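can u do me a favor
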């Protein structure tokens, strides 16, 4: 392509954006066409939560805007034609047409007004069931399926044999009555009585793994590559699933203040996350055995934190409203305990005010309270906050935790790595990332990271208060201590437990070890 061809292509791409009807009309057109959010979102290649945003005030851009406008224009034309045709029909024909439509819709589901459910289509020619492979007469959410679980039985002769040494029966026995999994990109089936409900969102994770394993005939390495690549969109689908029936609406692409925007293309924004990077300067006399503890699922646990629901609003003053969350410009208090505990705001070279997140501010306020009395309260100058809840991602977190626990119990390394990728990439890509355009919340990203750092700091305080010598605190999951740590922290692989990463000897003198002294 010549330089002029490239310029012509660029000029062709520049032009007026496709016009969209008002938000209320967009939703009305979809509902009149009896299309669920899941069906429309799947056709446009976005998530249902993104479509919800387009129906409540946000506009898409680029190619997807053109597709959305094309869909809405088509729906408007189709519905207008149907209305005109219905008006021109004789009374008897209208009653027959109406009766047929009612019969067709009755087979879909018994939904209440406002609920989004996928329709069931009757097939003139049977197609292979997406769950068992045998001929099915119905199509649900665009996929052929049996409505009666008794009809949905896989033929043992056609069941692919896995070369994987399965850690459990989960990887060998397909759940024929379950809904399609995440990795296939298929949405869940209707909640009709003929369907068996899965035990919870964690089932979607297991089904995704099983589907990819079956597709690659038990090749764990190939399945792992596919699952890790799909971790971000799968995490977003899981989030949508766990948000069904939630009490709070979330703004996925709100207005963001300049302090949360990168100063340069490769630079950072102005938010300080208080990442610990601390090593004790002096140890007690003698040689000591130091244990490096690994904190399990640090970012997974940090999903339980106070997150702002809507657009951040600016305020000034020293008061802190615990019903809200966001970022705050503070002057941190002096820290007089650096010899035995890390500074709660991390290692900072320059003094003065800085922007911190909600978990950091709450940690400082907690440490300045009567229970601990370790510092003075921070001075709050201004804030960007919104109404908040600590349980916004709780169902999402529990689904991931349950899948993680099951994978560990079953020795299922593939699912474990997939789950880790889901929650770690979910956190890291919700800011300015090309890998996750369904959720743009850099404030959430900073808050969740800071919560992980605050959780580690509180473990360091717990160790110190229990008489252990804290030697080092690093990042989200590394805590080095001297002493009998097992009386303070339970050992294991659960997110409430710790495991040993390393042991080494430190200090000088003639004593053999700290353990013998105690």
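np, heres the sequence
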């Amino acid at each position: 392509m010549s330089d002029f061809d490239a310029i012509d292509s660029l000029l062709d791409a520049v032009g007026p954006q496709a016009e969209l009807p008002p938000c209320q009309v967009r939703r009305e057109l979809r509902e009149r066409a009896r299309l669920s959010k899941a069906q429309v979102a799947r056709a446009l290649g976005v998530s249902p939560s993104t479509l919800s945003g387009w129906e409540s005030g946000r506009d898409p851009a680029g190619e997807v805007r053109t597709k959305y406008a094309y869909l809405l224009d088509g729906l408007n034309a189709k519905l207008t034609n149907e209305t005109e045709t219905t008006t021109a029909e004789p009374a008897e024909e209208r009653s027959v047409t109406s009766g047929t439509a009612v019969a067709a819709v009755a087979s879909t589901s018994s939904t209440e007004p406002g609920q989004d459910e996928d329709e069931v289509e009757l097939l003139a020619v049977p197609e292979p069931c997406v769950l068992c492979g045998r001929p099915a007469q119905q199509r649900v959410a665009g996929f052929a399926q049996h409505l009666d679980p008794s009809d949905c039985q896989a033929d043992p002769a056609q069941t692919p044999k896995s070369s994987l040494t399965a850690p459990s029966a989960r990887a060998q026995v397909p759940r024929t009555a379950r809904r399609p999994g995440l990795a296939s990109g298929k949405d869940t089936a209707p909640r009709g009585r003929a369907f068996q409900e899965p035990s919870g969102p964690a089932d979607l994770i297991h089904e995704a793994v099983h589907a990819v394993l079956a597709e690659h005939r038990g090749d764990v390495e190939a399945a792992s590559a596919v699952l890790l690549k799909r971790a971000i969109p799968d995490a977003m689908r899981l989030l949508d699933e766990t948000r069904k029936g939630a009490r709070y609406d979330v703004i996925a692409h709100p207005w963001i203040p300049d302090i949360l925007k990168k100063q340069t293309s490769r630079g950072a924004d102005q938010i300080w996350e208080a990442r610990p990077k601390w090593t004790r300067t002096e140890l007690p006399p003698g040689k000591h055995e130091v244990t490096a503890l690994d904190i399990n699922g640090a970012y997974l646990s940090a999903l339980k934190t106070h997150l702002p629901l809507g657009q951040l609003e600016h305020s000034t003053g020293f008061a802190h409203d615990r019903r809200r969350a966001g970022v705050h410009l503070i002057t941190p208090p002096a820290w007089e305990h650096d010899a035995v505990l890390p500074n709660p705001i991390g290692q900072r070279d320059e003094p003065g005010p800085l922007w911190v997140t909600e978990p950091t501010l709450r940690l400082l306020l907690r440490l300045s309270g009567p229970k601990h009395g370790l510092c003075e309260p921070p001075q709050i100058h201004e804030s960007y906050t919104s109404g908040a809840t600590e349980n916004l991602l709780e169902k999402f977190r529990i689904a991931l935790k349950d899948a993680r626990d099951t994978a560990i119990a079953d020795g299922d390394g593939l699912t474990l790595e997939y789950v880790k990728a889901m929650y770690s990439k979910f956190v890291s890509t919700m800011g300015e990332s090309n890998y996750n355009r369904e959720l743009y919340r850099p404030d959430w990203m900073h808050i969740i990271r800071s919560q992980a750092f605050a959780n580690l700091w509180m473990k360091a305080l717990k160790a110190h208060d229990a008489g252990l010598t804290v030697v080092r605190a690093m990042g989200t999951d590394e805590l080095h201590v001297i002493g009998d740590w097992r009386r303070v922290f339970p050992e294991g692989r659960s997110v409430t437990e710790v495991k040993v990463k390393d042991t080494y000897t430190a200090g000088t003198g003639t004593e053999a070890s700290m353990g013998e002294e105690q």
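DSSP finds 15 helices and 14 strands in the chain. hope that helps!!
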